[in-house]
Amino acid sequence: MKLLEVAQLIGGEVTGDHSVEITGIGKIETATAEEITFIANPVYEKFFSGTSAGAVVVSKRFNPALYERLDDRSVPLVIVDDPYLSFLTLLDYFSPQTELQKIGIHETAVVMDTAEISGEDVRIGPQVFIGEKVKIGNRVSILPNTVILAGAEIGDDVLIYPNVTIYNGCKIGKRVIIHSGTVIGSDGFGQAKNADGTFQKIPQKGIVVIGDDVEIGSNCTIDRATMGETIIHNGVKLDNMIQIAHNVEIGENTVIAAQSGIAGSTKIGKNCMIGGKVGIVGHITIADGVILTAATNVSKSITEAGMYSGYRSQPMRAELRQEATIRSLNKKK
């Protein structure tokens, strides 16, 4: 499509030759003259001088005059409010999602007679197991080797990748994406110590409830509640390899990066951002709008929004001041 058509698709304004033919998208370092790329992070502005892309999507603050081109070619720009979101639109347009599973139930799938799969355009792949009284909504795609145990409920437009296990009674909302290897509803870690030093398992009788528009990465574990519910609210996004223990509650639109762990009965607020390898103890509360930097350890409740870091979490500026003080002591030696 012509660059002008691309700009109309994302609501942008073209500076330069709007008749350039665009056939695809690419990274700014490697894009060809027929591809469009973008600059959302200032870190990548340095590549503008040498990019071979046919056009670049940029924000209104970007100033091409600051970057002298390595050749004489003038690269057209598409100016938008948010280059990242605009590029996501182009990504969907130029690289649409391929069909992952054909409509219908594969002949090797095992579906119990009491399961309710009456929705339209349901896709169930090879070797899938659907247990007793499971409810499946419209346009659900369940890829090979997934297991859904008795009484689980799956909402409309859910995509479940291969080798996912959803235990009995768990509830999945609408438009949820669950990536390979994830386990939802396994027993929480509850053990009572006997007088002789042995441990007795505490029965885990609750469920997991996952809201709408949630995405869960590969190899995550979300434990069922001891009693009641482990709750992942609407819009939460989880990276790969995250452990969420029993009776945890995660507020709307909170995002959590890989290898983080949250211990039992902790409540995390809305719109939080939790970096990779963060550890959070159990039975505490984290307020709305909290940002935890990578590898932060949280051992007590956080009651105010803000950015926190450190081996024992504290406001990031305080942690940086302590680090600076320690470094200055070393210099004095």
Which helices and strands appear, and what pairs or packs with what?
Layout: H1 3-10, E1 13-15, E2 24-25, E3 35-38, E4 55-59, E5 77-80, H2 83-94, E6 104-105, E7 110-111, E8 123-124, E9 129-130, E10 135-136, E11 141-142, E12 147-148, E13 153-154, E14 159-160, E15 165-166, E16 171-172, E17 177-178, E18 183-186, E19 191-193, E20 199-201, E21 207-210, E22 215-216, E23 221-223, E24 229-232, E25 237-238, E26 243-244, E27 249-250, E28 255-256, E29 261-262, E30 267-268, E31 273-274, E32 279-280, E33 285-286, E34 290-292, E35 297-298, E36 306-309, E37 314-315, H3 316-332
Parallel strand pairs: 2-3, 3-4, 4-5, 6-8, 7-9, 8-11, 9-12, 10-13, 11-14, 12-15, 13-16, 14-17, 15-18, 16-21, 17-22, 18-23, 21-24, 22-25, 23-26, 24-27, 25-28, 26-29, 27-30, 28-31, 29-32, 30-33, 31-34, 32-35, 34-36
Antiparallel strand pairs: 1-5, 19-20, 36-37
Low-confidence stretches: none
Structural class: mainly beta
Q: Under CATH, the topology of the largest domain is which? A: UDP N-Acetylglucosamine Acyltransferase, domain 1
* Rounded average pLDDT: 96
**Quaternary state of the chains:** single chain
Give keywords.
2 domains; Udp-n-acetylmuramoylalanyl-d-glutamate--2,6- Diaminopimelate Ligase, Chain: A, domain 1; mainly beta; 333 residues; single chain; 3 helices; 28% strand; UDP N-Acetylglucosamine Acyltransferase, domain 1
Q: Can you describe what's shown?
A:
The chain is mainly beta and 333 residues long. The chain has two domains: 3-94, Udp-n-acetylmuramoylalanyl-d-glutamate--2,6- Diaminopimelate Ligase, Chain: A, domain 1, CATH 3.40.1390; 104-318, Hexapeptide repeat proteins (UDP N-Acetylglucosamine Acyltransferase, domain 1, 3 Solenoid). 11% of the residues lie in helices and 28% in strands. It contains three helices and 37 strands. The protein has helices at 3-10, 83-94, 316-332; strands at residues 13-15, 24-25, 35-38, 55-59, 77-80, 104-105, 110-111, 123-124, 129-130, 135-136, 141-142, 147-148, 153-154, 159-160, 165-166, 171-172, 177-178, 183-186, 191-193, 199-201, 207-210, 215-216, 221-223, 229-232, 237-238, 243-244, 249-250, 255-256, 261-262, 267-268, 273-274, 279-280, 285-286, 290-292, 297-298, 306-309, 314-315. The longest helix has 17 residues, at 316-332. The termini are far apart.
